[in-house]
Structures are given as structure tokens and as C-alpha cells.
Automatic annotation (TrEMBL):
Belongs to the IucA/IucC family. This is Siderophore biosynthesis protein, IucA/IucC family. It comes from Azotobacter vinelandii (strain DJ / ATCC BAA-1303). One of its GO terms (biological process) is siderophore biosynthetic process. InterPro entries: Aerobactin_biosyn_IucA/IucC_N, IucA/IucC-like_C, LucA/IucC-like, PvsD/AcsD-like_thumb_beta, PvsD/AcsD-like_thumb_helix. Residues 153-376 form the Aerobactin siderophore biosynthesis IucA/IucC N-terminal domain. PANTHER family: L-2,3-DIAMINOPROPANOATE--CITRATE LIGASE. Residues 407-567 form the Aerobactin siderophore biosynthesis IucA/IucC-like C-terminal domain. One of its GO terms (molecular function) is acid-amino acid ligase activity.
Length: 586
């Protein structure tokens, strides 16, 4: 076999993709497995470390594996939650062997070997490799695209090359060709037209607001219905769709109309001139889930928008600066008159679209919104993306970077926690305010002054606040999909807001400064303490302030065990708040 020599630039991209894959794998493994079991040290001083690690700046992280073998590598920062940024390859030392560096694939096989479910390792290893290869492709094209749009929301939606920092497969996209991947992925600045069908109007169904005017504006014609480019082959091959096409009730027209932009969720599309985002079905596994719009999710999102209408209005006064993004409409095609219920349900889900209200042009211009995940990540140059906006804020306020970071976090966390905890403890509504679901808006000084939480798919109701009779008008399956018990609701809100969201915010705002990290967590502790009394001193919040561990969703084990996302387990993390409380948090 002839080996083609790679350029230095290509080798650099390979190295960046490898480093990020290793970062994700080891951070997941440390948080979910090694640290809780006492099998890792974030400041290893073993006398026989690899020579390249002994005198280098940073912390040496050591991990003991089940068979007595070891891993060691260098981190330039490690947070109080055990979150690290690694700056060396992982070195492995087996029995009677010397140290040797591992690549991401070798590391993945090594970490999976002792874990339960070996019959499942193959699928996860394939997804890890898939994520690695796709990251490499995105790095190549992201640098060319450069994301230079003037729209801050769009730039942040399409600027997230790295993705979820604590997921083993942050960029895995199974079953998509490289050409289709590059044509429709936000990470490369894609924009594309939808694929359209001319449809007998009797087949179109919608719930909530009527979206047909919006679809006509995008298509440039009436009585047309779209699907995502990644879904069209599945639909054209569907037997029921083929039968209905033969009857002349459905005609495939191909791509046309207004080109839309994929957002960070990939399947949700945006255009600044449109009143709504469009969330499509795609039978592609992104990270943990196949991202189709299940029929009951079409029902539940619109139902929740109606049920939560009074809360959304109340938040304007009770939690100014915090808002939910409504999803007032859903649409699909109903072919049940021409096939079995099972056949029709498949087509209903493939054609399903949810419509999320967009921020109006005046709000976008005033608040310059950005997705939180785009701020609390690394730039392509390896710098925390939030450092530049915080430096701008420091200049506007006339303070140093550390003081600006404190004020910035105080403003952001106050809005995020104030709204999320109010919804949970006062109204029994468990939001999912993780990094990708949270938008920030800014005032003239660059401080966060608005927070929007989106994606009602992840929003759940606590039965004690929402007895079955309040949801009696809903289908039983839809109703069941909306409920979390109180403990599960608290864990999801606490994980999303305090670990996934603010945990990453603190990690990036502190930028490796241990003293600043402690001060940032103290700000969060003070904010939580101040909200106890107004919320009726709920037990879960009181226990958290007293030192109860933080729940951290197990993305690694959930993927390994092939569990549904709503069945994910939680690892108990050491509480970073207790040490920073002033004594009143008891």
C-alpha cells in the first residue's frame, strides 16, 4: 500500500482532533468513573513518571486502571470539579513495560476494557472514531469558513467546532456521507435550501398556530411541504410515501426556496428574516440520540407552550431578563388514510416540524445574543472564547479582568439561576438550561442582561404541581412524556444549570486561576443562598448549600449502555459551593 505524505498543516489538524477527542474521553472517564472510585489523582507525584512530564509546567494527572496498569498525562489546569485541559498525550505503562504514548483510539479501547457491557464496546468505539474523523473534517473547513457573519446569534450557532466538552462522541453523526455532512453542518458555515413536496392540502396537519404562511414564504409557493436534506432519501424510499405519490397526492420537487442556516443542534434551522426557527426530523444519531421528532414530541411541545403561557407572562415581572422561547406550532403530513397506523406514524415523524419563536430583529440588534456553548469553549487558537468579551467588559467598566469576570458571572448566574429555580420550585417546571439551550444577551457595557432558555422537548413537569387533570386533554403517551418526579426534575435542573452550564462558565472564566475560580464559585454560592427564602427554602436547595453533592449526568455510561437520554444516571460530584459559603449556608 502506498502511503501519501501529509502536509504539516494536515498533521496539525490531525493533532488538534486527537487532542480534543482525548480531552473528552478522559474528562468523561475521570468524572464518571475514576475520580468517584479514588482511582485518579489530579496532582500525581509518582517517582517514575515519563521523562517528558517530570519537569514540565502544569499538573500531572495519574489514573490507575483495573489491572494495575497506569495512565499519566499533563494538564495545564484542573478545576475543583475535576475538569481538566490536557496538554500532553496520555502515556500508558503496563506491567513490566515502559511508558508509551497512546492515540485516541488506543485510549478508548483501554478505558472501555474493564467496563460493563463489552458487547456494546464496538458501537461506542465506532462512534468515537466517527466523532474524531468528523472533527478533523470540520477543522479543515471551519478555518476556511471563518464564520464572519455580522449576526452574533448566527455566528455563535455556527462557531461550535468542538461541541460538548464532557461527551465521549461530541461530533458523531452516524449514517451521513461527508458531502452531505459538509453541506448541512453548522460548524462549516453551511446554508442550504429545503427539499419540497407538492402536497394535497388535505394531507397537511398542524397544531397550534398555522405555519403554512411561513412555509409558503420559504418555498415561494403555496401547498408545498419541506423536509431536511438528510431525511429526503428515507422518505422517498418509504412504501407509504411511494403509494401516495403514485396516487398523485404527493409530488417530490427537490431543493428550492430560501436557504436556511443550521444551528448548533444541527437539525434546527434559522434565518434572520424569519419569525421562527424550524426544528426538523433527521434519523441521524447526534451524540446520544437519534434526532427525530417523535409524534408525541410534536404534541408535547405545542401543549407545553399553551400550558406555560401564564408562566411565561409572569416571568416578565417576577424574573426580569429571563424568558422561555415558545414553540407555538407543529406540523406534519397525515397519510393514515392510505396505510396502516404504524406506516403512517413513521411518515408523520419523518415529516414532523416544530416551530420555535425567533428573537425579533430589534432584540437581536440591541442585545447581540449568543449561545452559551459558544462562549464557554475553546477558540480554534486554543483560547477560552469568553476571554475576549470579558476583556471588552473590563475596558468598559474600568476594572481588571478578574473583577470583570466576577461581575460578568454574577450577572449571568443571577439571571440563569433566578429563572430556572423559580420555574422549578414555584411552578413545578423543570427546564433544561444546558449550554446549548441557553442564549445570552448583553448590555452596553458587555454584561449579561438577558437569558433565554429554549427547546421545550427537554422541559418536564413535576406531578405535585401538575396533577393529571390539568393535562387531561392530552394523549396518554404525550402526558407521560411530560412528567419527571421531583427528584429527577431537581437533578436535571441542577446538572444543566450548575454543572453543564455554570461549571463550564467558571472553568473558562477562571482561565486556570485557582483563586479566581474559588471567588467565582463563591458568587454562585451567595446567589443560591439569597434565593432560598424567596423560594420557600426548598429542601433540595437547602441541602445543596449545606454541602450535598452536585449531580452530573453520565454521558459516557449512558452512551456505553445504550440508554435513552431521559434514563441517564448521575454521578455525585464534590460540592464546590460549601467551601466558599460564608458560614450562613447551613
Amino acid at each position: 500500500m502506498i502511503r501519501v505524505a501529509r502536509s504539516p498543516y494536515e498533521r496539525t489538524l490531525d493533532g488538534e482532533a486527537q487532542r480534543h477527542a482525548i480531552d473528552c474521553l478522559l474528562n468523561c472517564y475521570l468524572r464518571e468513573y475514576a475520580l468517584p472510585r479514588g482511582e485518579a489523582s489530579l496532582d500525581s507525584r509518582a517517582p517514575d513518571l515519563p521523562m517528558s512530564l517530570r519537569h514540565a509546567e502544569g499538573r500531572c494527572v495519574g489514573i490507575r486502571l483495573a489491572d494495575g496498569s497506569r495512565l499519566a498525562l499533563l494538564a495545564d489546569r484542573a478545576s475543583v470539579l475535576g475538569r481538566c485541559r490536557f496538554v500532553s498525550p496520555p502515556y500508558f505503562k503496563g506491567h513490566d513495560q515502559g511508558w508509551r504514548p497512546l492515540d485516541a483510539t488506543e485510549l478508548a479501547r483501554l478505558l472501555l476494557a474493564p467496563l460493563n457491557g463489552p458487547e456494546r464496546h464496538g458501537e461506542l468505539l465506532e462512534q468515537i472514531d466517527n466523532s474524531l474523523r468528523i472533527t478533523r473534517a470540520f477543522l479543515t473547513h471551519a478555518r476556511a469558513a471563518n464564520h464572519d457573519q455580522a449576526d452574533t446569534l448566527l455566528r455563535s450557532e455556527q462557531g461550535q467546532v468542538w461541541g460538548h466538552a464532557l461527551h465521549p462522541t461530541p461530533k458523531s453523526r452516524d449514517g451521513v456521507s461527508e458531502a452531505d455532512l459538509l453541506a448541512c453542518s453548522p460548524e462549516v458555515g453551511a446554508q442550504f435550501p429545503l427539499h419540497w413536496f407538492r402536497v394535497d392540502p388535505a394531507l397537511i396537519r398542524h397544531q397550534g398556530d398555522d405555519p403554512r404562511g411561513l412555509l409558503a414564504r420559504i418555498a415561494g409557493a403555496d401547498d408545498l411541504y419541506p423536509c431536511h436534506p438528510w431525511e429526503v432519501s428515507r422518505l422517498l424510499a418509504d412504501p407509504l410515501v411511494r403509494r401516495v405519490r403514485d396516487l398523485g397526492l404527493l409530488e417530490y420537487l427537490g431543493p428550492q426556496g430560501l436557504a436556511l442556516y443550521p444551528t448548533s443542534s444541527v437539525r434546527t434551522l434559522y434565518h434572520p428574516a424569519l419569525s421562527h426557527f424550524l426544528k426538523f426530523s433527521i434519523h441521524v444519531r447526534l451524540t446520544n440520540c437519534v434526532r427525530k421528532n417523535a409524534w408525541y414530541e410534536l404534541d408535547s411541545a405545542v401543549a407545553l407552550t399553551g400550558l406555560l403561557g401564564p408562566l411565561m407572562r409572569e416571568l416578565t415581572d417576577s424574573q426580569p431578563g429571563f424568558a422561555l422561547m415558545p414553540e407555538p406550532a407543529a406540523s406534519t403530513l397525515d397519510l393514515s388514510a392510505h396505510g396502516s397506523a404504524e406506516e403512517a406514524r413513521e411518515v408523520t415523524e419523518c415529516f414532523g416540524i416544530l416551530y420555535r419563536q425567533n428573537l425579533d430583529a430589534a432584540s437581536r440588534a440591541r442585545y447581540q445574543p449568543r449561545v452559551a456553548m459558544a462562549l464557554f469553549t475553546w477558540t480554534l487558537d486554543g483560547i477560552s472564547a469568553c476571554q475576549a468579551p470579558v476583556a471588552h467588559c473590563a475596558a468598559q467598566l474600568g476594572v481588571d479582568q478578574a473583577e470583570a469576570a466576577l461581575r460578568w458571572l454574577r450577572a449571568y448566574a443571577g439571571l440563569l439561576l433566578g429563572g430556572s429555580l423559580h420555574c422549578l420550585f414555584r411552578h413545578g417546571v423543570a427546564l433544561e438550561p444546558h449550554l446549548q439551550n441557553t442564549l445570552l444577551g448583553f448590555d452596553a457595557q458587555g454584561l449579561p442582561c438577558r437569558v433565554w432558555v429554549r427547546d421545550l422537548e427537554g422541559t418536564k413537569l413535576v406531578p405535585e404541581h401538575w396533577p393529571a387533570e390539568r393535562l387531561a386533554h392530552l394523549d396518554a403517551r404525550t402526558r407521560a412524556s411530560l412528567y419527571y418526579d421531583a427528584d429527577k426534575a431537581w437533578k436535571r435542573v441542577a446538572y444543566c444549570s450548575l454543572v453543564n452550564n455554570l461549571g463550564e462558565a467558571v472553568f473558562h472564566l477562571a482561565d486556570g486561576d485557582v483563586a479566581l475560580e474559588e471567588r467565582l464559585w463563591r458568587e454562585i454560592a451567595d446567589l443560591l443562598e439569597a434565593r432560598r427564602a424567596p423560594l420557600g427554602d426548598p429542601r433540595a436547595l437547602r441541602e445543596l448549600c449545606a454541602g450535598a453533592p452536585l449531580p452530573s449526568k453520565e454521558n459516557f455510561m449512558t452512551r456505553l449502555l445504550m440508554k435513552a437520554d431521559r434514563e441517564a444516571g448521575y454521578t455525585a460530584l464534590p460540592n464546590p459551593l460549601t467551601a466558599t459559603c460564608h458560614g450562613e449556608c447551613r
